[in-house]
C-alpha cells in the first residue's frame, strides 16, 4: 500500500517555517515601531513637563522679585507722604519715572503714579456699606462729562453714566436711561447687575451702554478705588495731558482746552492751598459746587505701582494699589499679567 506522505513535496515543511519566521519578524518590527513612537511621545512629554516646571519656577521667582519691588515702592511712597503730609507735588521727579532694580538673573523696573488722578467708577454712588449704596447725581454727572469730553455723544454718555450707577447701587429700580436686571436678562447671555462696588475698572465692560469703543476711550481715564468718595484730584500732580479729568468736574462750564491751559500754568512748586487755586483769575466766573471744591486736593491718597520683571527671558508684570491716606501706607491689592 503506498505511503500517504510520499505525495507531499519534500520542500513544504521548509516553506512553512520560512513564512512563520517572516511573520514573527514583521511582528517584532511593528512592536519596535510602536515602542519607538511611545518612547518618543514619552520623551516629548517629559521635555514639556521639564520646560513647564522651569517656566513655573521662573514665574514664581519673577513674582517674588516683583513683590519685593512693590514693597520697596511702598516704603518710598510712605517717605514721600510723611516728608510733607500737607502737599504732594511733582518735585523730585517721582511720578512715572522708571526705576531699575537689578535682581539675580535679570532686572526689575518700577514706576510710581498718582492713582487718584482718574475717574473713580465707585463715585457714582454714596454709602459706606455694600448694602446701602445710593446713586450720587454729581458723580454720575462727572462720568457723563468725562465721556463727553472724550468725544462720546451726549445721549450715549448719559445712558452709560446712568447704567453705571444702576450697576453699583443696591436697589433694583433703573434710572432714566439706566439698566437693571431686566435689561441684562434679555441679553444673549443673561446675567444680573452686580449691585456692589467695582473692584477693577475692567468690570465697566459688563455695564449696559458701554460699547467696546466707549470702553477703549474711557480705559486710560478710569479706576476703581476702594471708596465711594468723589475722585480725589490732586491739582499739584495732574498733568496737562490729563485735562479731561479736570474738565469733568464742571461739565459745561470748563472746556478741555481751558483745563489744559490752566494746568500748564501751574507753579513749579505747586499750589500752597486750594483757596489759592480757586482764586485764580482763569477760574473767575465759574461756580463749582462745594463738593467739587472739596474734591480738588493738594495731596495724593492712592498711588499706583507698576513693576516689570525680566528673569532669564521670562517676564512678569505686577500692578499694585497703595493706600497712603494714613501712615503707614498699605497695599490694597495687586494683579499680575500683561493686562494687569
From TrEMBL:
Record field: transmembrane: 23-43
Give yes or no: UniProt keyword Membrane: yes
Leader sequence segment: none
- Give every T2SS protein K first SAM-like domain span: 117-226
**Domain T2SS protein K second SAM-like, first and last residues per copy:** 233-290
* Compartments, as annotated in UniProt: Cell inner membrane
Q: Main subcellular localization, coarse class? A: membrane
- Tell me which UniProt keywords the record has, alphabetically: Cell inner membrane, Cell membrane, Membrane, Protein transport, Transmembrane, Transmembrane helix, Transport
InterPro entries in the record: GspK (IPR005628), GspK_central_sf (IPR038072), Pilin-like (IPR045584), T2SSK_SAM-like_1st (IPR049031), T2SSK_SAM-like_2nd (IPR049179)
Write one Pfam family the protein is assigned to. Answer: T2SSK
Identify the PANTHER family for this entry: TYPE II SECRETION SYSTEM PROTEIN K, TYPE II SECRETION SYSTEM PROTEIN K-RELATED
Identify its protein family. Belongs to the GSP K family.
Protein name, per record: Type II secretion system protein K
Q: Which organism is this entry from? A: Sphingomonas bisphenolicum
Q: What is the lineage of its organism?
A: Bacteria, Pseudomonadati, Pseudomonadota, Alphaproteobacteria, Sphingomonadales
Amino acid at each position: 500500500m503506498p505511503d500517504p506522505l510520499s505525495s507531499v513535496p519534500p520542500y513544504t515543511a521548509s516553506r512553512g517555517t520560512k513564512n512563520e519566521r517572516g511573520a514573527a519578524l514583521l511582528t517584532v518590527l511593528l512592536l519596535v515601531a510602536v515602542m519607538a513612537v511611545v518612547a518618543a511621545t514619552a520623551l516629548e512629554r517629559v521635555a514639556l513637563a521639564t520646560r513647564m516646571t522651569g517656566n513655573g519656577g521662573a514665574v514664581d521667582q519673577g513674582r517674588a522679585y516683583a513683590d519685593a519691588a512693590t514693597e520697596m515702592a511702598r516704603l518710598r511712597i510712605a517717605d514721600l507722604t510723611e516728608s510733607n503730609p500737607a502737599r504732594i507735588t511733582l518735585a523730585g521727579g517721582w511720578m512715572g519715572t522708571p526705576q531699575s532694580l537689578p535682581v539675580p538673573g535679570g532686572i526689575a523696573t518700577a514706576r510710581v503714579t498718582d492713582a487718584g488722578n482718574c475717574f473713580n467708577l465707585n463715585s457714582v454712588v454714596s454709602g459706606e456699606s455694600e448694602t446701602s449704596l445710593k446713586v450720587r447725581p454729581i458723580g454720575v454727572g462727572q462720568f457723563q462729562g468725562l465721556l463727553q469730553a472724550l468725544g462720546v455723544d451726549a445721549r450715549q454718555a448719559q445712558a452709560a453714566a446712568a447704567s453705571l450707577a444702576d450697576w453699583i447701587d443696591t436697589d433694583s429700580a433703573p434710572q432714566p436711561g439706566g439698566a437693571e436686571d431686566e435689561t441684562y436678562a434679555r441679553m444673549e447671555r443673561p446675567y444680573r447687575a452686580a449691585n456692589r462696588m467695582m473692584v477693577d475698572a475692567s468690570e465697566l465692560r459688563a455695564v449696559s451702554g458701554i460699547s467696546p469703543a466707549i470702553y477703549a476711550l474711557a480705559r486710560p481715564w478710569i479706576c476703581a478705588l476702594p471708596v465711594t468718595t468723589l475722585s480725589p484730584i490732586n491739582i499739584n500732580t495732574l498733568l496737562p495731558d490729563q485735562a479731561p479729568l479736570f474738565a469733568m468736574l464742571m461739565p459745561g462750564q470748563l472746556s478741555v482746552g481751558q483745563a489744559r491751559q490752566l494746568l500748564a500754568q501751574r507753579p513749579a512748586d505747586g499750589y500752597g492751598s486750594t483757596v489759592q487755586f480757586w482764586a485764580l483769575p482763569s477760574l473767575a466766573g465759574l461756580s463749582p459746587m462745594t463738593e467739587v471744591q472739596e474734591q480738588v486736593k493738594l495731596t495724593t491718597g492712592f498711588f499706583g505701582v507698576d513693576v516689570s520683571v525680566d528673569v532669564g527671558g521670562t517676564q512678569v508684570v505686577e500692578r499694585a494699589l497703595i493706600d497712603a491716606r494714613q501712615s503707614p501706607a498699605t497695599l490694597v491689592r495687586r494683579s499680575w499679567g500683561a493686562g494687569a
